[in-house]
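Good morning,

Attaching, inline, the backbone tokens for the sequence recovery test we're adding to the shared suite. The designed sequence is right after.
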């Protein structure tokens, strides 16, 4: 594993972490992940609007100094050569977009001399007049600190801030319409006594359903981060939730007088269990995961109201 101030990474977990960050950081530039089926072309993602190409690199072990410099230097040399070798295939992917900036994204840089190597390789590639390379082509080194605003590590512990992907939300609603119907049915029972006007009741039910879907999707992305970067904690999370899910399924078989309070109590219970058994994580992140869990129970059938 390669150690940083923000956790330890291996090549696979580093790439998965980077891809999550890229999708957030460059969403407005139409970031596209390069599918594995395309083979190793020297880029693992690109922005269709702005011509940025990305390649991730993380050493297998915690190397430093000259060893890390040589590894980064070799990676740049090898992958820049692939842009020339695979020009025809890359052109099919990029269309009319030219690569203006090629980013090597690595947990930590080693030596200022790597920048001199970048300038050398820029000139060599531009001289080839490749159809996919902009005349002002640049090679840029990015480190983990360049993405901490998307993968946040605070003084209170590790935190990942997820966002709702509108496309994914629409696809979920279409593919799992039962989620929407389940939530609407349950929230109607939750708020039924609060409103005499059916229109007002319907608005509250729809708002609560929409919020549950958002919480579910945000938490799902956060769980992907947990699975990739903290697999032991992810497995512990699954065991905790599995036990709690059995309990809430049993508890909700009978009549529940105050359904609104019951939902809040479930969120509080999940959060408290996570706080007790998952160390090193920011409380805001764990609260979001608790919201995700209970939202999933509502969207599915684990938490039901008779």
């Amino acid at each position: 594993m390669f150690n940083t101030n923000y956790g330890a990474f291996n090549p696979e977990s580093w790439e998965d972490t980077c891809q999550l960050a890229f999708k957030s950081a460059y969403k407005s530039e139409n970031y596209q992940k390069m599918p594995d089926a395309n083979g190793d072309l020297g880029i693992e993602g690109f922005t269709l609007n702005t011509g940025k190409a990305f390649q991730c690199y993380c050493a297998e072990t915690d190397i430093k100094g000259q060893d890390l410099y040589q590894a980064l230097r070799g990676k740049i040399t090898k992958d820049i050569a692939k842009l020339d070798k695979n020009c025809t295939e890359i052109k099919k992917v990029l269309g009319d977009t030219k690569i203006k900036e090629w980013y090597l994204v690595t947990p930590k840089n080693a030596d200022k001399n790597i920048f001199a190597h970048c300038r050398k390789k820029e000139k060599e590639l531009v001289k080839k007049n490749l159809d996919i390379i902009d005349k002002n082509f640049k090679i840029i080194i990015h480190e983990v600190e360049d993405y901490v605003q998307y993968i946040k590590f605070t003084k209170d512990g590790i935190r990942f801030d997820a966002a709702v992907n509108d496309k994914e939300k629409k696809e979920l609603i279409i593919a799992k319409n039962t989620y929407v119907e389940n939530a609407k049915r349950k929230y109607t029972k939750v708020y039924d006594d609060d409103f005499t006007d059916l229109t007002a009741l319907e608005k509250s039910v729809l708002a609560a359903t929409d919020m549950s879907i958002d919480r579910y999707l945000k938490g799902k992305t956060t769980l992907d981060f947990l699975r990739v970067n903290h697999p032991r904690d992810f497995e512990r999370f699954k065991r905790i939730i599995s036990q709690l899910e059995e309990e809430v399924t049993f508890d909700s078989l009978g009549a529940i007088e105050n359904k609104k309070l019951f939902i809040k109590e479930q969120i509080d219970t999940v959060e408290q269990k996570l706080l007790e058994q998952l160390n090193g994580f920011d409380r805001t992140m764990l609260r979001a995961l608790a919201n995700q869990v209970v939202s999933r129970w509502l969207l599915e059938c684990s938490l039901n109201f008779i």
